[in-house]
């Protein structure tokens, strides 16, 4: 599908071979704050997740795609809380720690996902929630046209402290 192929990366469905990559991402405690994870995922749970990842977004209200660069998985991008009645969905993205960060791959992935969501799913708007101190994500989503529309004060309790969270939206032109 043309919509899911960019100049440097492509977005594709999860495959059983992605188990070790998925386990590395999901169990990276450095990003648990962003993913709201509190416990590690077992290989068994992730295998079961992969078995069901083929289900339709209209059924499970979520779509997770792998970000590929030169046929190597470098990240994940999600549509979540898909609401076909109100034509909206949340967006989340992660590029695995290491050499692939800060190269524009996250931005390209978000742009591809925007095009896919607006063109194929007919959504009217996309949104994301970003911690007030997550400058890289704020810059990423602002560079893709998202606008800050709200602040949820003391929204998340992280390491004994409350952090506020911004709400960003992109409404279809």
Automatic annotation (TrEMBL):
<dbReference type="InterPro" id="IPR016181">
    <property type="entry name" value="Acyl_CoA_acyltransferase"/>
</dbReference>
<protein>
    <submittedName>
        <fullName>GNAT family N-acetyltransferase</fullName>
    </submittedName>
</protein>
<dbReference type="GO" id="GO:0016747">
    <property type="term" value="F:acyltransferase activity, transferring groups other than amino-acyl groups"/>
</dbReference>
<dbReference type="InterPro" id="IPR000182">
    <property type="entry name" value="GNAT_dom"/>
</dbReference>
<feature type="domain" description="N-acetyltransferase">
    <location>
        <begin position="9"/>
        <end position="173"/>
    </location>
</feature>
<dbReference type="Pfam" id="PF13302">
    <property type="entry name" value="Acetyltransf_3"/>
</dbReference>
<keyword id="KW-0808">Transferase</keyword>
């Amino acid at each position: 599908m043309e919509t899911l192929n960019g100049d440097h990366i492509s977005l594709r469905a999860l495959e059983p071979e992605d188990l070790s990559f998925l386990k590395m991402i999901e169990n990276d405690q450095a990003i648990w704050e962003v993913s709201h994870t509190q416990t590690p995922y077992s290989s068994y749970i992730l295998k079961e997740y992969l078995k069901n990842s083929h289900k339709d977004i209209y059924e499970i209200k979520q779509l997770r795609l792998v970000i590929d660069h030169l046929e190597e998985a470098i990240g994940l991008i999600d549509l979540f809380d898909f609401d076909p009645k109100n034509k909206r969905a949340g967006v989340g993205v992660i590029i695995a720690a290491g050499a692939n960060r800060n190269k524009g791959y996250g931005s390209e992935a978000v742009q591809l996902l925007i095009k896919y969501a607006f063109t194929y799913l007919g959504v009217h708007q996309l949104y994301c929630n970003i911690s007030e101190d997550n400058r890289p994500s704020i810059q990423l989503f602002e560079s893709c046209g998202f606008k800050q529309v709200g602040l949820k004060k003391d929204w998340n309790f992280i390491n004994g402290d409350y952090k506020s969270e911004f709400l960003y939206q992109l409404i279809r032109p």
